[in-house]
Amino acid sequence: MKWTPNEVDMFLQAKEYVDTALIPLVPVNFAENIKQSASMKDFTEILTLEIERQFKGRIMLLPQLAYLSSWDEPKRLELAADWARGLKEQGFAHVFYITSDSEWRVNEQGLEGSLIWIPSIPLEHLEEKHKRPMIDDQVRQVLAIFTRKWHD
Amino acid sequence: MSKHRVSRRQFLSYTLTGVGGFMAAGMLMPMVRFAVDPVLKASEGGDYVATKQKVDDLTEEPKRVDFTIKQVDAWYESEETQTAWVYKDDKGEIVALSPVCKHLGCAVAWNTDKSNPNHFFCPCHYGLYTKDGANVPGTPPLAGLDVYEHTTKDGILYLGAVKPHKGA
Domain Rieske, which positions (chain B) (predicted)? Predict the structure, then answer.
């Protein structure tokens, strides 16, 4: 489910079935990596929307969580942890972060939820007909991570 | 000079009839168009979208067929990819099922659960459907998978509107 009024209605009616929260983490950077930062946001958005479409009934896709690339690690971890704690209080058994920012991998243990890291593909350079298979491929890998976690 | 001379009176009445006729037509035509509009609309109703699937390549094994539709919401016009699970039943008739689980809308897939082979399986809450799309009692879904209307043209599969499952 997405964070839209209609789907939140659906969420309220089916709350006991939605036990997984997905938080996209998106870095914003105005320095030399500005283009890459925008490309990550785009890629993460497309990927998460597709994941949401496949697992609509069990995943709540939250709004993208943006932060400045210049933030130091403790500040970043705190941001992520706050969200995870808040969501767990709301009854989400599984909290997933998804990001293309490799910085998060440095201290993966420090996170409260599970981290899915996917290197971003610069979709703007791809032809329309190649985009879809590319994304499908990535999505398939991520879906497996979710089902494995649910089966545990 | 011709024998039939047109008098001033005749000339005026002809031109007035002509011009008046045009004006009346100009007013009536849109009205007629509006009146018959619902009829014209109805014929556009059954829109079919071409897939890339050749009908001859379909087998009895459900196959994932992706197709794109143009979707307009308030701000964006986008192409949305939709999926159908398509196969031929034992009579050779094409069956195209919607992949949207009737429980909470996840995407179901054919034959992905090892403990329930030859079923459509929903990974979210383990809903099951038989090959014809009927929900297996005891699993979360309360209705069978929706069915796409379909037609074939030049050997290519075209998919249309979704209809509720017959058994539902």
Answer: 72-159
